[in-house]
Design brief:
By secondary structure, this protein is an alpha/beta fold. The protein is built from 11 helices and 7 strands.
């Protein structure tokens, strides 16, 4: 068994193989196309394929096929086995030696306390999908949530089709603005209970860990901004994106957050991200 884990550690000792592993941890439970993984780490397709093969050989990830595409996903059970081995055998089970210091693990399987929760939605540009999510949760969640959104791109602006979609549905658009994620990473920023990425590119980025270990999930969906065609066709794409996010957020609002332990809550928000994109609302 020690030899098996030694092989896993040896594979993770390569910077780009480690980058792929970390990316698939962030995207879990998604199965991610090989081409997207290669683009995310800036590697050629055949080079990324070799790295992925190594990770798969030692049981850290799994491979599946969808049409002509190869998809890769974290093997959560075997990856957890490696972490358990490091803690039990290398650290001799001593949390004072190997427990995380900057982000201590929650004690036991504690239930999240019932209060007003801080929620952040992240996308690359903060121009459409994350703005939709911010607006929808603020309306659907009532006074249960403080809601924010941000983008990872240094500069962005609201997409006019997104703004018009919200205006037609009766949202207050005057206070909406495009924001950068750095605005929420300073010492005076809110401590978030939930952080959701709503586009694949943002989820693939290696951002710093959030203080307080918020429950996080990836609710990716197609980018309506990339739609080409007539204004009517573009407007329909934004309607679909709005409808998909509204379906997911309604499912999130319906969760009995104050009665679920952290692991159950994590599984619940992961499941929401795996639901069908839905119909326009």
């Amino acid at each position: 068994m020690e030899s098996y884990h030694a092989d896993q550690l040896a594979v993770l000792g390569h910077p780009q193989r480690l980058a792929l592993f970390r990316l698939l941890v962030r995207r879990y439970p998604d199965a991610v196309p090989a081409g997207e993984l290669a683009d995310a780490i800036g590697a050629r397709a055949n080079t990324a394929s070799t790295y992925l093969s190594s990770l798969r050989h030692v049981g850290l990830i799994t491979q599946s096929r969808e049409g002509r595409s190869l998809l890769y996903r974290l093997d959560a059970t075997r990856s957890r086995g490696l972490m358990d081995f490091l803690f039990a055998e290398c650290c001799r089970g001593r949390p004072d030696l190997c427990g995380p210091s900057a982000f201590p693990l929650p004690e036991g399987n504690a239930i999240m306390p019932s209060r007003k929760y801080n929620v952040l939605f992240i996308c690359t540009g903060n121009s459409a999908r994350s703005i939709f999510a911010e607006s929808i949760l603020r309306r659907e969640g009532g006074d249960r949530f403080n809601v924010y959104s941000a983008g990872t791109r240094p500069y962005s602006e609201l997409n006019p089709f997104a703004v018009e979609t919200l205006r037609k549905k009766g949202y207050d658009i005057d206070a909406l603005r495009a924001k950068n994620v750095e605005e929420f990473q300073g010492p005076d920023a809110p401590q978030f209970d939930f952080v959701f990425t709503v586009c694949d590119r943002a989820a693939n980025e290696d951002c710093p860990a959030w203080a307080g270990q918020p429950v996080s999930a990836h609710w990716g969906m197609p980018d309506p901004v990339k739609t080409v065609g007539t204004d009517a066709e573009k407007s329909l794409a934004f309607q679909h994106a709005y409808g998909a996010l509204r379906n997911r957020i309604q499912a999130f609002v319906a969760l009995p957050i104050g009665t679920l332990d952290r692991i159950s809550l994590q599984h619940a928000v992961d499941d929401i991200g795996q639901t069908n994109a839905g119909e326009p609302a």
